[in-house]
Amino acid sequence: MLAVLIAATLFLQQPIAPVTPEDSLLEARVSALASTLRCPICQGLSIEDSPAPLAKEMRAVVRDQLKAGRTPAEIKAYFVAKYSEFVLLQPEPRGFNLTVYILPVVLLLGGVVLVVRVARKWSRGASGVLAASEVEQEPEFR
Amino acid sequence: MNWKRAVFGAALAIPIVALLAYGLTQDPRLIKSPLPGQPAPPFALVSMDGGENVSLTALRGQIVVVNFWASWCLECRFEHAALSETATRYRDRGVRFFGMLYDDTPENARKWIETMGGQSYPTLLDPGLRTAIDFGLWGVPETFYIDHEGKVADKTIGPVSAEVLAGKIDRLLALRAGGT
């Protein structure tokens, strides 16, 4: 038990390389960019979230390229040139990709229009029935 | 009123059905690589046995076949004989074959080659999978065909047969002979 405690104390006393603000900033940039890139061998995971070795090495490429001064757009372009646009988790809004952006809005608006029309129809039907029942009940009030 | 409903329903359903029908004609596993027609990503790597430093640039003028594989890859077993035999068959015609070890240890790879009865071409080590990423690798096995000008001419996803290999190499040899 004592030996374990001593070993743990010695381990904790090991000098740890200090994390500079620059390191933290770089890691945050790597993380942000890696979250937008698809892991090629996974099912819908980003290279940030995937534990696969290929994803890990792709993150290393992102880190190296950011360190070399490349912009996120240039790094994305590098991966697109290798893997096609499929490597982007969020496709660029152009060409056929626009369907992904426009169709949900169109369907949502269509749904709203449909609900409003049906609600109006029901409301008209209900008031019509009410009016008819009022007419029927009128003689009783007289 | 009914015909209006029918037109509205058709206007809504036809594009959706057309979109789904188009989707059925596509193979979701098949993603078109942007590499064919582009210059092959250059690499300078050491062979697994340490006996050869291979630079793709130095191989300009030759047809180069690069096959990414791993000992844990089941499908790699199905293509191994075809690759080895075709490499031997085309060796004297200016065609070089290279294996590219993917996410594996040299020890496991050597044992696997021994089990499979040998490999007639060198396998290169790819530290950090940088060459695999440069080639836009989606998995193993994948085979890339590089023409005499150093451009990626084509690629095969999955196990490749001797017929496919021969067909693609013959086409590249014809292109080289034609000087185009």
Shape by Cα distribution of chain A: elongated
Strand order of the main beta sheet of chain B, please? Answer: 5-4-3-6-7
Along the chain, the helix and strand elements of chain B come as HEEEHEHEHEEH
Number of strands of chain A: 0
Proportion in β-strands of chain B:
15-25%
Question: What gyration radius of chain B follows from the Cα positions, in whole Å?
Answer: 21 Å
State the helical fraction of chain B: 40-55%
Q: Hey, which two chains have the biggest interface?
A: A-B, 16 and 21 residues
The biggest beta sheet of chain B reads: 5 strands, mixed
**H/E topology pattern of chain A:** HHHHH
Rg of chain A over CA atoms, rounded to whole Å, is 31 Å
How does the major sheet of chain A shape up?
A: none
End-to-end Cα distance of chain A, whole Å, is 99 Å
Q: What do the pLDDT scores of chain B average to?
A: 94
User: Could you tell me how far the N terminus lies from the C terminus of chain B, measured between alpha carbons in angstroms?
Assistant: 66 Å
- Counting copies of identical and different chains, the oligomeric state is heterodimer
Parts with pLDDT < 50 across at least 5 consecutive residues of chain B: none
Give the overall silhouette of chain B: elongated
Q: Poorly predicted ranges of chain A (pLDDT <50, ≥5 residues)?
A: none
Please give the number of β-strands of chain B.
7
Strand content of chain A: under 5%
